[in-house]
Amino acid sequence: RDILNSIEREMSGDLKEAMKAVVMCARNTPEYFAERIYKSMKGLGTNDDMLIRLLVSRSEVDLQDIKETFLRQYKKSIHKWLDSEISGNYRRLMQGLVGTN
């Protein structure tokens, strides 16, 4: 059995979500963070706190790998998503963190 399936069946609430995050991050860190960045921007409104925390915390660690994974998964660069989701100095700052490609 897959560990994520076991977690899904055997746990609940915050513990289940935390354990799933640990497993997903351990399996493929760039994919995990690309998905979190995507979820912070999709739908109505942007979860600014999440977006800032993710981009700042990963900017000097593995953001290049995350950007490549994001582009592959969502067919649009993080830079382009930011362009359509946020504005002003906030957008310029976030785009400065991620760079152009």
Task: Describe what this molecule looks like in 3D.
- The protein is mainly alpha-helical and 101 residues long.
- It is built from seven helices and no strands.
- The protein is elongated, with a radius of gyration of 15 Å.
- The termini are far apart.
List the helices and strands and how they pair.
Elements: H1 3-10, H2 13-27, H3 29-41, H4 48-58, H5 63-74, H6 78-85, H7 88-98
List keywords for this structure.
about 75% helix
In short:
This protein is mainly alpha-helical. It is 77% helix and 0% strand.
Structural class by sheet pairing and helices: mainly alpha
On the 0 to 100 scale, the average pLDDT is 93
Can you summarize the main beta sheet? none
Low-pLDDT segments, ≥5 res: none
Q: What proportion of the residues is helical, as a percent range?
A: over 70%
